[in-house]
């Protein structure tokens, strides 16, 4: 692959990333605005992340970014193992946090996927109705 092809591939990848980010944000705002369950899950996840970040910052003496990083990695069930709770108290908290956060994360993700499919179905229906309208117009 020559230099120009590599640059084009890099730009195509970045374009794809920003397009997907735009779609994610669009669905996120739509869900918050129109769906009560989605809004509850979103707020609950923010509360869980904020609470656990403050907890680990205070009791494990991690930096805010490390505490948030650990909270997100635990919620998403990634768990690299680079940060671990060190006291029995923080371990018990982590057990409780894990059960709450994974359940909320899975429910939120499922709701997000549901909204994405619903949005796609509406777009497809609009296109089909538009095409049908064009076909049904009498020719002059």
In words, what does this structure look like?
It is built from 4 helices and no strands. The chain is mainly alpha-helical and 140 residues long. It has one domain (16-136): Helix Hairpins (Orthogonal Bundle), CATH 1.10.287.70. Helix 1 crosses helix 2 (36-59), helix 2 (36-59) crosses helix 3 (64-75) and helix 2 (36-59) packs antiparallel against helix 4. The mean pLDDT is 90.
For the biggest sheet, the summary is: none
Strand content: under 5%
Which class best fits the helix and strand makeup?
A: mainly alpha
Gyration radius over CA? 22 Å
CATH architecture: Orthogonal Bundle
CATH top level? Mainly Alpha
CATH topology: Helix Hairpins
Order of helices and strands: HHHH
Number of strands: 0
State the distance separating the first and last CA atoms: 54 Å
User: With helices defined by DSSP (H or I, 4 residues minimum), what is the helix count?
Assistant: 4
Q: Mean of the pLDDT scores? A: 90
Low-pLDDT regions: none
State the helical fraction: over 70%
What is the count of structural domains?
Answer: 1
Overall 3D shape: flat
Pfam family, one: Ion_trans_2
Keywords: Ion channel, Ion transport, Membrane, Transmembrane, Transmembrane helix, Transport
Domain Potassium channel: 44-114
GO biological process, one term: monoatomic ion transmembrane transport
């Amino acid at each position: 692959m020559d230099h120009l092809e590599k640059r084009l591939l890099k730009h195509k990848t970045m374009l794809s990333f920003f397009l997907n980010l735009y779609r994610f944000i669009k669905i996120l705002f739509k869900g918050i605005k129109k769906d009560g369950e989605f809004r509850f899950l979103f707020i609950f996840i923010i509360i869980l992340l904020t609470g656990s970040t403050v907890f680990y910052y205070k009791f494990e003496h991690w930096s805010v970014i490390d505490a948030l990083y650990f909270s997100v990695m635990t919620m998403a069930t990634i768990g690299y193992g680079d940060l671990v709770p060190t006291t029995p108290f923080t371990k018990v908290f982590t057990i409780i946090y894990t059960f709450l956060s994974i359940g909320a994360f899975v429910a939120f993700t499922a709701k997000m996927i549901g909204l994405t499919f619903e949005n796609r179905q509406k777009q497809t229906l609009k296109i089909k109705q538009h095409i049908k309208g064009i076909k049904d117009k009498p020719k002059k």
